[in-house]
Design a protein that fits this description.
Blueprint: H1 3-12, H2 15-23, E1 30-32, H3 34-40, E2 48-52, H4 57-68, E3 71-76, E4 81-85, E5 92-97, H5 103-108, E6 119-120, H6 132-137, E7 140-141, H7 148-151, H8 154-165, E8 169-170, H9 172-180, H10 190-201, H11 206-216, H12 219-222, H13 224-227, H14 242-258, H15 260-264, H16 268-276, E9 278-280, E10 283-284, H17 285-295, H18 300-303, E11 305-307, E12 310-312, H19 316-330, H20 335-347, H21 350-354, H22 362-372, H23 376-384
Parallel strand pairs: 2-5, 7-8
Antiparallel strand pairs: 1-2, 1-6, 3-4, 4-5, 9-10, 11-12
Helix pairs in contact: 1-3, 2-4, 8-10, 8-11, 14-17, 17-20, 17-23, 19-20
Amino acid sequence: MSGAAKLGGGLEASDSVAVVRRGLPSEHAWIVGGAIRDAALGEPVVDLDLAIPEGRERDAARAIAREAGGYAFPLSERHRTWRAVAPNEAWHADVTALRGKTIEEDLRARDFTLNAVAVPLAGGDPVDPLRGIADAEGRVLRAASERAFPDDPLRLLRAARLAARHRLEVDPGTIELARAFAQLADEPAGERQFAELRAILCGPEPIRGLALMDELGITGVVLPELEALRGVAQTANHHLDVHDHTLTVLERLLEVEADLPRYAGEAAPAVAELLAEPLSDEVTRGCALRFGALLHDIGKPATRAMHEGRVTFIGHDSAGAEVVAAICTRLRTSTKLSEHLQGLARHHLRLGFMVHERPLSRRGIYSYLRATEPVAADVTLLTAA
């Protein structure tokens, strides 16, 4: 099936599109952005982005909310965007003023070609000035213009996120363009950077997302602490440097997540429930555990030393907790998430020390659980990985 056919079928099958059309029966508006991309890629269309003539955003969002039985609110004054939310937050529609005099001008100012396609809300042929549908068919992520990254540097992280999430190949010219502007990647507000990092790490392909960040040259800009792990040699018992060891731990954790009955046995349902528990900042405990795996040895570069011819990292757990706190402050996470991730870094060695005690006593287990609360279960899973 062609991208155009997928696009039409995906939009017609979407409940949110049907509701929006009923709410705006005579509105001159276009469906744009992620909904078009997802439909063209053959993926379900849930949330919508609408482009509409300036000055109509509020009224249109409220009309959609009334039809859906939900509510509407201003999302961004800067971008002139209102959001309508369906009951139970089943989906939302963002209504934004046209960026330019025409829909073509609006589309040419967007981030990537497969996000630069519009379909009239009432139906009709797509507007595709940059051949985004063809790129969707080829599963290629291509910058919409040479201004794509300097106009909004958050798009550097978004490129890694979209390519990983949708299993797209990044166009070589786009990689070159991203590397040319990589130094801008830390300019967006910390919470915007965190939202993209969260989507990468909590998405279906976190390892590929991190590799794409490397390929685009932005890891050392957004997460210099992670970049600093490269080349940090460990003890003779570790053939990997700290960076590659860290990714191996994350990969192992993903394996455990994917097959809990194998690794957790009868406890698998309880572990699954724990991992799915909301924590903070739209992060579950399972997603936080992925962050914990990525950051658990973040204190090693600062504590590496040689003692009697042996490499040591004495105190890297406590030092790592301090680095994690600094990262969370920079990315403007909640205090709750920051403290949770600090706990994972601070306590990730305890279980390893405890299991060497012989015999292993109930008292020792109780002391471990008491010392590691409230992350006892989480850090136990991290250490096991």
